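SAMPLE LOG
Freezer: B-3
Tube label: C17
Construct: single chain, 106 aa
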Amino acid sequence: MCTITKDQVYKAISTVVDPEVGFNLVEMGLIYDAIIEESCNVKVVMTLSTRGCPLHQMIKQWVHEAVERIEGVGVVEVEVVWEPAWNISMADDNVKAALGGSGTMW
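STRUCTURE (predicted):
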């Protein structure tokens, strides 16, 4: 039985910072789910703030590497989805405040 938790996965992913805005992906609300199988394989379902993000592949790789560092993790899969579309209301309050919270920037 796998002992890896969603909290561990989210904590690992929180080390990945979006270089364009300076906040981690978890506090930005870009991580939609972490599915952990009994075999300790982990699937991360996430999005990006924009479809045209020039760092799409790099950010996906950074998430993959962060989750791979968790002791005992099996195969890691990172899936980028576009629905639901991300918007500023999905971010933590500190991110909203720093980025203008009204959503007008996004």
